[in-house]
Amino acid sequence: MQLGVFPLPIVLFPGGITRLRIFEPRYIRLVKESIAGTGFALSCYDKDHPFNSSTIAAWVEIVDFSTLDDGFLSIDIQAKSLVNLTEFSIESDQLRKAKATIIPHWPEQQNSQQSQLLAKELKLIFDVNPHFTAMYKQTDFDNPNWCCGRFVELLPIDISDKKQFLSEQSFGVCLNFLHTLICGEK
Q1: Segment 155-168 mean pLDDT
Q2: What would the 3-class secondary structure string for 49-73 be?
Q3: Backbone phi, then psi, for 30, in 5-degree steps?
Q4: Helices (DSSP H) in the chain: which residue ranges?
Q5: Is the pLDDT of residue 186 over 90?
Q6: What 3-state DSSP class applies to 172?
Q7: CB-hemisphere CA count at 13 Å for 159?
Q8: Could you give the CA distance from residue 4 to residue 94 in angstroms, rounded to a whole number?
Q9: How far is 57 from 46, CA to CA, in rounded Å?
Q10: Which one of 5, 56, 117, 142 has the fewest beta carbons within 10 angstroms of its own beta carbon?
Q11: What angle do CA 162, 166, 170 make, to 5 degrees?
């Protein structure tokens, strides 16, 4: 499938939601096309790539939108899956497009003592931050994949560190990293 590509310094995992402020004409067109079609690809900005985009992206759909006080558009997007981007092109208004192929992320995991401790900590963060609760109409604190994805998205760690967890086989490394960082245990 062909998707519009929006490169930003954000990593979004399947199920993740984030809010974007849209003001450039090319991205307003991206939003219009996304609503009428198949969504778009939210990729990591990569200054070293000819199209300023990573080749792995989140395939997202718009789940909410509003007009801000300054007249700009605000959209909430949710990642449906990860995609591999190839065959990039740039249209006349500088909107990037690419061929997108769905790729697997982490296989479903069973809860463990580590993941349950992380879920408890994540729930505390959601409880004291009504912004998250408002964005996530449905939470899944019993799902280790969902909890680990949300933590990686929220933590102020380098994008390159976050990108390493996009690999299908990286769940164990991610869980151990988060458990050590959040719970202080190995």
Answers
A1: 93
A2: CCCCEEEEEEEEEEEEEEECCCCCE
A3: -55, -45
A4: 25-36, 113-128, 130-135, 144-154, 159-163, 171-178
A5: no
A6: helix
A7: 15
A8: 11
A9: 12
A10: 142
A11: 95
Query: If we measure between CA atoms, which residue out of 131, 158, 37, 151 comes closest to residue 76?
Result: 131
**DSSP 3-state percent helix, strand, coil across the chain (nearest 5):** 35, 30, 30
User: How many other CB atoms sit within 10 Å of the CB of residue 81?
Assistant: 16
Write out the two tokens for 56.
Answer: 């792995």
What pairs with residue 169 in β-bridges? none
CB 173 within 8 A of CB 152: no
What the block records as the tokens of 42 is 């939210």
28: Cα separation from own chain's centroid:
19
**Helix, strand or coil, per DSSP, at residue 75:** strand
- Token digits of residue 52: 């300023």
pLDDT at 135 over 70: yes
CA separation for the pair 38, 71 (Å, rounded): 26
Cα 92 from Cα 108, distance rounded (Å): 41
Long-range contacts of 128-131 (CB under 8 A, 24+ apart): none
In angstroms, rounded to a whole number, what is the distance separating the alpha carbons of residues 150 and 141? 10
Mean pLDDT value of segment 50-56: 90
